[in-house]
Amino acid sequence: MSDAARLTIHRYFGLLFRALVLLIALVMMLPLAYLLFRAGGVGWTELLSLLGRTRMLSIMWNSLLLVCGVTILSLALALPFAWLTERTDLPGWRVWTVLAMMPLVIPSYVGGFTLIAMFGPRGVLQELLSPFGVERLPSIYGFTGALCILTLFTYPYIFISVRAALHRFDPSLEEAARSLGFNGLQTFLRVTLPNLRPAITAGGLLVALYTLSDFGAVSLLRFNSFTRAIYVQYLSSFDRNVASLLSLALIVFTIILLLLERHSRGRGRPRYYRSSAGVVAPRKRIELARRKWPALAFCGAVVMAALVLPTGVILYWLLRGLTSGESLAPVWAATLNSFRAGALAAVAAAVLGLPVAYAAVRMGGWLMSFAARAVYLGYGLPGIVIALSLVFFGANFAPWLYQTMWMLVFAYVVRFLPQAMGAMQISLMQMNPRLEEAGRSLGLGNRAVFRRITAPIVRPGVLAGMALVFLTTVKELPATLLLSPTGFSTLATQIWSGTDEAFFARAAAPALILLTMSAFSIFLVLMQEEREVIGG
Amino acid sequence: MAVNDVSLTVDRGEFIALLGPSGCGKTTTLRLIAGFERVDAGTIEIDGALMAGNSVHVQPERRRVGMVFQEYALFPHVSALANIEFGLRRMPPAEKRARTQEILEMTGLAGLEGRMPHELSGGQQQRVALARALAPNPALILLDEPFSNLDAGLRARVRAELGEILHAAKATAIFVTHDREEALSMVDRVAVMLDGSVKQMASPHELYTNPATRSVAEFIGDANFLPGFGQGDTIECELGVLAARKQIRGPVDILLRPENIELLPAQPGLPAARVRHSLFFGHDQLITVQLPTGTHLIARSGPSDAYVSDLPLQLAVRSPVVAYPRKK
User: Fold this and answer.
1) For chains A and B, what is the number of CB pairs under 8 angstroms?
2) The domain A19-34+326-536 is classified under which CATH number: 2.70.70.10, 2.130.10.120, 3.40.50.300, 1.10.3720.10?
3) Where in the cell is it found (chain A) (predicted)?
């Protein structure tokens, strides 16, 4: 073949590749585009009557209340916990640090399940108290329950960021304040706290975002915030306009939070670290002396509520189920289904994510960076919104896809592709083009370069991304609930229905399996963050 | 680092240096004075008031001790001005403004007060740290290795500025350093700290010419030691009979600073020392010579003469000399 012909092929291939990347990005934007299109079809008069009919304002108020409540309460747990483990001689502070982060492993709906299975009707506590003639317990449904669950399982986001900030914090700043006439408390308020503010804001916004988009806990605990209202609308009236309007409002709220979060991390702002690098005096932990008892009680109570009780409740119902002859067969079937859906989603994410990741890292131009951004859109969208838009889209335009496994996998990919992309982009960035050139100059052909240099370097990132997608897919609830083919039950849906129908023993085994897998996924995320730090 | 047997007395308005190698306990001493660490034994008094010891521990905020940290520890979330005003919160506003203005002018920071710490250069940051410590008019200022974060070119200038500012403020100050030139050139008195205790406290001149111990002599400057025998006012050694600074008897080690050894042309008939090698620096040179008995000495000489290897020389010593009893 002549050189000119080879060049032509090369150019066509490049164009084709760009077109492919763009196509993937457009497909990923489909749900949002459809939602906007639907909501755009609602007229003004209709809009006003809808607002009145659906009690939109009360839903907004509920969501706002929950987001604020969870954020503030999480802060109240995370701040003292982080301070105690990082700055004081709290006995066993290393262990407490790990324990404080572990509730992150528990998905909110599993948390909801444990709360209901403990304190709800026919729960553990009621059974314990029934011999004493206690028939009814104060209801845990509604705001209080949702607030408790979301706080207990999201405060680690703030804990992690505040702990990191405390770790970076230069203790001589506090000493400087002391030598200028401020006592311990004044120093904390005037010097330490202002310097923790960026970390508190970042962690708090993560908690707020999680709370706003959470579906599992609020739905199980029947608190009418956005996500549950959307679900109820979908179930009861199948009124697309109302549901899409609610979804749109939720998206607006999410975008506001995302913008705030971006702003809080913005460049150009002074960085609140020590002004120059160098030797720091080894920090001395503050001696708690007799104050260690209340401190231990506080940490113990948090870990008890967020970790020990939930796992205890799961184990209790698991044993109850096993001894009363609850069949494990549905659990195995559900596990198999979950794994199958997860594996399909992982493979699809790798196949679709790799070209986009490659384009984002290696190719210039606004079109390619737009494509990468479009794919990241799914990350910010609440799961229930993606699920719902696909339900409408499928029912209207692709009935042959609706309620098939493919539709479900598509929803997973839209939601979790960004996670896979993240991992793949990191390893692609490590893949310096000079390495490939070095391979060529050492006499390797194109194919040999790919096989012996590119692939081995990129492989770990792709595998990590796939593992992450697999594990988060298994945990996913709203899309699974809305888009599963009929009769297709997974671990997540089993926990959901078991809790909803108060068959707690049935939900226990899936919950335990999920918890284990969730632990793996958190571990993977932490590992990846480590890599990101190392990779610069 | 453990500290014991530290005895320091600082007069009002005096500027002293705490000099020692890294890890000798000098920063710990500073932190004990500031109140960030607790003493196990001994006492610390400021202006006649007991600050620590005898089961007393006055909190750092009540000691009236200002501190300039090695990393400056400027509060990164507020401006330079707010940093300087930090310790003045109990002052009436008018007085506060006047005091801040005075301090800003004294430290040459006028015009920079609106900047955030990260917008200031290293030298400016250090002046803000000093201004912040000076503003509440503390009884004592402590400076922990104040120049270690500055590059060499900047250091000499900042050193001079800092000395002037402290002098103008009539502040009583202790500063910690491991750099002996820094200590000797800046302060009224130097306390030499080795292995957790203060070995000698004296004026720079006294310290250099009459070190209390052999280890202080070695730490404070280049030192040769020549064996000799004390006979009261004189010491007999290979280089002849030298006058002793003070009475001493028995086997001794004589301290010979390189600049106290004079290199003279060899005289016929007398045993000569020979040049082994020399290091030429421009303004001076260091010449290693070997005495007839084999002992090596390092001498300092001006740049005019050339000392080639094996050149025979006669050595003379500027007396009186300091000597230390030889350890058995």
Assistant:
1) 93
2) 1.10.3720.10
3) Cell inner membrane; Cell membrane
